[in-house]
Design brief:
Order of helices and strands: HEEEEEEHEE
Helix content: 10-25%
CATH superfamily: Superoxide dismutase, copper/zinc binding domain
Number of strands: 8
Radius of gyration: 19 Å
Low-confidence stretches: none
Largest sheet: 8 strands, antiparallel
Distance between the termini: 49 Å
Mean pLDDT: 88
Number of domains: 1
Strand content: over 45%
CATH class: Mainly Beta
Amino acid sequence: MSKGFLWFVLLVVVGLIAYWAYYPSATSAVTVMLSSQNNSGETGRVSVSDNAYGKAHVVVNLIGEPAGASQPMHFHAGSCSAIGAVKYTLTSAVNGKSDTTLAISTADLMKQLPMAVNVHKSAAEMGIYVACGDVR
């Protein structure tokens, strides 16, 4: 085996290691179940996975959202029982659906735990939470 070939193999291995370290796995995904708060009857599911560009793609499906409602949502620091400051704003849910791409990867999002996904009743009633789920 020539030295040139060994250097080539070494460069390929180093390149692959660097790629895997920088770009999270496309299969990394997080699911958060939303529980009803304040007798809203709203529940749901939040799915987070990296898109083709390595950014966290957040899809929210709510059940029981009032017809015509637009409900703001955020990733908050803390937990549902001890909600903290807003960390990331999500697209408001309309007709029970929300789709947002964050500027960070799912792996980087998970490094910021503890967090919770919180659904607010409306933009005018931000202090009323209708659903929440702890990110684990």
